[in-house]
Amino acid sequence: MAVPEIRRVGVVGLGAMGSGIAQLAVETGYETVGREVTEELGEKARERIAHFLGRKVEKERLTAAERDDALGRLTLTTELADLADCDLVVEAIVEELGAKLELFAELERIVRADAILATNTSALSVTEIAGAVSTPERVVGMHFFNPAPLMPLVEIVRAELSSDDAVEAAFAVGERLGKRPIRCHDTPGFVVNRVLIPLLNDCIRVLDEARVSAGDLDTAMTAGAGWPMGPCTLVDLVGIDVHVHASEALYEKIREPRMAPPARIVAMKNAGLLGRKSGRGFYTYE
Ligand code: 3HC
Quick check: is 122 catalytic? Predict the structure, then answer.
């Protein structure tokens, strides 16, 4: 399949990941259309992007004019139809297969026949998501890491029917965004989460096994294993709900007990302790 030159990027879902991806796109120079379900959520994402770009200006990593130009490239909408002219659409909505299938089917009706459709899913199958459209060759995974503007990796995931052109176009976009893209196949958890999710679950189990506090476990893994941030801080950043969902999705597919979310973290999710975004997780936030 011939793919278009990527000029205009759509991002569907402007939560922590989607707003980070939109930030990268506007900073890189792509005209970017961000879609949220309400105007309020869209504005919240714009404020978040403006905040982080503002910090870059304060730290003299960006000029005020560059920030303004970047923000000028961001268009917000609540209408999927406004993504019609996008050459690439990156989906970053809730991690529910049904919602993603519905979205991809609708996107296929809206965008041009040659536009690429990418999903930022953490743990669902890109091939299953591609099953929603009649042109699965244009569907790939573009899996960014949290926080998307800071983490260098993006996994470019080839689903069963992805075309070489779509994979290479997504890879080139990853490079243009300043990332270090890698190519991988659509296996559960792709590369990083296949390793990281059970590892984080082991860390959470050690909390109870070794009767160590969250703070001491974080010190252990930063000071003793060289991690940039401790596991409890990391799970709070990613979101307790996101981590539980990813664990459940991997466990369902791989059936290794280490993949299953530990009872402690499932209880936290059920109690609404979701980490940074809810103000409380392993730690309490302002
Ligand atoms: N978006 C944009 N900019 C951000 C940001 C965000 N979400 N968060 C922070 N920044 C900016 C801020 O402006 C900040 O500067 P400021 O505090 O002066 O305003 C600047 O980045 C630097 O922040 P830090 O000083 O906190 O930077 P550090 O040097 O401490 O590094 C880190 C932060 C890169 C997050 C580092 O701690 C790290 O690598 N942590 C590990 C993260 C990780 O493992 N992520 C993967 C999670 S797994 C995942 O995402 C998979 C998914 O599928 C679940």
Answer: yes
246 Cβ below 6 A of ligand 1: yes
Q: H/E element holding 117? A: strand 116-119
Note if 193 is an active site residue.
yes
Cis peptide bond prior to 231, omega within 30° of 0:
no
Residue 223 is encoded by which pair of tokens?
């000071």
Q: What is the pLDDT of residue 3?
A: 76
Question: Cα dist. 18→41, 91, 147, 276 in Å?
Answer: 12, 8, 10, 17
* Closest atom of ligand 1 to CA, residue 243: 54
- In tens, the pLDDT along 211-241 reads 999 999 999 999 999 999 999 999 999 999 9
Dump pLDDT digits (tens) for 16-60: 999 999 999 999 999 999 999 999 999 999 999 999 999 999 999
Task: Say which residue, 160 or 1, is predicted with more confidence.
Answer: 160
In the three-class reduction of DSSP (H, G, I as helix; E, B as strand; rest coil), residue 143 is classed as strand
Q: Check 120, 143, 163, 201 and give the catalytic one.
A: 143
Name the residue at shortest CA distance from atom 25 of ligand 1.
Answer: 150
- Cβ–ligand 1 distance for 234 under 6 Å, the answer yes
| Helix residue ranges, H only, the chain | 16-28, 39-58, 64-72, 97-110, 126-130, 164-176, 192-209, 214-225, 231-238, 240-254, 263-270
Write down the residue that tokens 């402007």 correspond to.
14
* DSSP-derived secondary structure letter, 12: E
pTM listed for this prediction: 0.96
Asked if 58 is an active-site residue, the reply is no
Helix/strand/coil for 261: coil
**Ligand 1 atom with least separation from CA of 19:** 1
- Rounded to whole angstroms, the Cα distance separating 258 from 266 reads 14
